[in-house]
Amino acid sequence: MLPWHLLQRMVAADLLRVFVLGLVAITSVLVLVGIVQEATQQGLALEQTLRLVPLLVPGLLPYTVPATCLFAVAVVYGRMAHDNEITALKAAGIPATRVIWPAFVLGVACSAGLFLLVGDTIPRLHHRLRSIILEDVEEWLYARLRRDRRINEPKLGYAIWVKEVQGRRLISPTFVRRDAQGRDEIIAVAREAELQVDMQEEVLRVYMVQGEIVRDYQGPREVRLAFDEEVLPVPLPPTGLRRTQRPREMTNRQIRDRLASILYEQSVVSRQLHEALARGDDANTSPSLKQKQAHLEYLRNTVNELRTELAQRPALASSCIFFVLIGSAVGIWFHRRDYLSSFVTCFLPIVLTYYPLMMFGINMGKKGQLDPRYGMWMGNALLGVVGLALLVWIRRR
Q1: CA pair distance 122, 126, nearest whole angstrom
Q2: 242, 310, 327, 364: which has the fewest Cβ within 10 Å?
Q3: For the CA atoms of 45, 49, 50, 56, what is the dihedral angle to 10 degrees?
Q4: Computed over its alpha carbons, how large is the radius of gyration of the chain?
Q5: Strands 158-161 and 164-166, how do they pair?
Q6: What stretch of H or E contains 206?
Q7: Long-range pairs for 145-154 at CB < 8 Å and ≥24 separation?
Q8: Residues 188-238: pLDDT tens digits?
Q9: Is the full-model pTM beyond 0.85?
């Protein structure tokens, strides 16, 4: 019989090997399926895609690491049970649960690492990822034109059609600038053109060569202007540029500061609303009172969203511990050697229970119908209870 500390080292080494291989494989598949497919659909260049990968991968870890922990323990302990190693330990007077300690240490280490990442690093990288996408409007426009030969979306203040794109040159382009009501205001046709985005002034400048501009072409005073060189300024939509940080992009400290600020503002607006109602103001006839009610509702929704995000992060990070408990117990119980059977046996019940409970807690928390500090932990609590019960049962067998 091997010394106990040596057996633990062998189990830990096996767990670590399977965990690293599984993490690399699962993360690589998600990156390939996600960002590469999206880059292909959007027509992004290889350089643009590679810039996004390092920012995207850390954001996947809160989902890939727990799944990889589950995979590792299910495979290792399923193989040990299938090869009768667990039975040999019991015959030697060693409880089967003693061999679970390396897996528990792995789960605690992964949860601690994720806890540090989800509170600061991942939100910063996610904010940086969205900022790069927004700042790279010019490259996005060229990528769309290379792929579709047109950009024509109602939310934009312009539309572009081209015959082809050669580097930075647009061949035989047609531009349409729309007014605030979405009606075509100016049409320009040129031999070639080039785009330049000014992020400071939030303007898209179209540098055109040898063409014609038609103004008010639908009205009685149609004006046609021929030109050799012309610059057509088009305002960029402000919704994508002047945006507030989403809770997912904020660190824990930023969420707490934002939450304190909104709670104070909510108390002020609520007091003003009560004072107005006490004076006898009618909410159905007073525009200012309606505005205060709508603003108060917005503040309440924002508070619920921030609290849900703040509670979701530690619950998601701690899931590694509970995935390890359920994975090791089910792996020993079913004692299957092959990777696929061990993983599916553990992962299928989690897909049917843990993630629906997580989504239920998120939705109820954002609606203010359930305290997210408890709602986010329902899935972990269920896995913990079932995992501990199975381990106790396995110990007594």
Answers
A1: 6
A2: 242
A3: 170
A4: 29
A5: unpaired
A6: strand 203-215
A7: 145/170, 146/43, 147/42, 147/43, 148/43, 154/182
A8: 889 899 988 776 777 778 898 988 887 655 555 556 778 888 888 877 655
A9: no
For residues 117 and 63, is the Cβ–Cβ distance under 8 A?
no
Query: How many Å apart are CA 326 and CA 332, to the nearest integer?
Result: 10
Angle between helices 101-116 and 46-82 (to 10 degrees): 160
Top mean-pLDDT range of 15-29, 41-55, 133-147, 332-346? 15-29
List the structure tokens of 248.
Answer: 């997912």
The full DSSP string for 146-173 is HHHSEEE-TTSSEEEE-SEEETTEEES-
Interacting residues of 30 by C-beta distance below 8 A, sequence separation 6+:
60, 64
Angle among Cα 139, 141, 145 to the nearest 5 degrees reads 115
Asked if 325 and 391 count as a contact pair (C-beta separation under 8 A), the reply is yes
Among 318, 252, 312, 314, CA closest to 110? 318
Would you call 236 helix, strand, or coil by DSSP? coil
Residue 12, Ramachandran bin (φ over 0: left; ψ between -120 and 50: alpha; else beta): alpha
Strand-pair partners of 229: 209
Tell me the pLDDT tens digit for each residue of 361-380. Answer: 999 999 889 999 898 999 99
CATH number listed for the domain at residues 156-235? 2.60.450.10
Strands 164-166 and 174-178: unpaired
Three-state SS at 227: strand
Q: In this predicted model, what pLDDT tens digit does every residue of 135-177 receive, in sequence order?
A: 667 777 787 788 788 888 766 777 888 988 888 889 988 888 7
Helix, coil or strand: residue 181: coil
User: Token digits for 324?
Assistant: 């390890």
Phi, psi of 174 (to 5 degrees): -130, 125
Say how many C-beta atoms besides its own lie within 10 A of residue 20's C-beta. 12
Q: Note every long-range contact of 343-352, with CB atoms under 8 Å and residues 24 or more positions apart, other chains counting.
A: 343/70, 343/71, 343/74, 343/75, 345/74, 346/70, 346/74, 347/67, 347/70, 347/71, 347/74, 350/70, 350/323, 350/326, 350/383
Answer for the pair 175, 206: CB distance below 8 angstroms, yes or no: yes
